[in-house]
Design brief:
Elements: E1 6-10, H1 18-30, E2 34-38, H2 42-48, E3 51-57, E4 60-65, H3 68-101, H4 109-138, H5 143-178
Parallel strand pairs: 1-2
Antiparallel strand pairs: 3-4
Length: 180
């Protein structure tokens, strides 16, 4: 215990005065080993954390590289994108309902063009993801670049997911049009 290489801390900032808290933060910042801590102190986590494990319920654990503020910003952006997806889906459903009221189902000009190009767009995004993953593997020692590349990859993954959903919708629509 004189030279530990791992520290497990459970709410380490509880009941500490400012001076002791500063000593603890300095010690952890200069510590050569791994530090695993559970804390509700956001300032403390911002100061010492380089990776956040967020327990989201139902056995889901989200791993995020960066401090607590980075995690909060990422989470807010993710929720905003989910809301946009939900609104987009509702709009598409309404459009489909309105189309079903008309006699014949067919692609709009925009959908036809999108249907013809979506495979190449998906392929391009997959190639971008692959390139970013290669860069991530090469940048393992540059934390700032690694964070930027990780965020770029997460955005590309979300974009690919949206494209795949759109591809599925367009193919189902094409099948319905064919079967009329």
């Amino acid at each position: 215990m004189k030279a530990p290489n791992v520290l497990f801390l459970d709410e380490p900032t509880n009941d500490l005065d400012i001076e002791t808290l500063n000593i603890l933060e300095t010690y952890i910042e200069n510590f050569e080993g791994a530090v695993v801590t559970v804390s509700h102190d956001r300032y403390f986590l911002d100061k010492i954390a380089s990776k956040i494990l967020a327990f989201r319920g139902n056995g889901e654990i989200l791993e995020h590289t960066g401090n607590y503020s980075d995690y909060i910003n990422f989470n807010a952006e993710k929720e905003k994108q989910e809301q946009v997806k939900i609104e987009h889906k509702a709009k598409e459903d309404k459009t489909i309902k309105n189309r079903n009221k008309t006699s014949k189902l067919k692609f709009s000009y925009k959908e036809q063009k999108e249907y013809e190009e979506i495979d190449s767009v998906i392929e391009k995004v997959e190639m971008e993801i692959s390139e970013v993953e290669d860069k991530i593997n090469l940048a393992s020692s540059d934390f700032v670049l690694l964070q930027e590349l990780t965020e770029k990859k997460e955005k590309l993954d979300i974009k690919l997911s949206e494209l795949m959903e759109r591809w599925e919708y367009l193919n189902e629509l094409a099948e319905k049009i064919e079967n009329q």
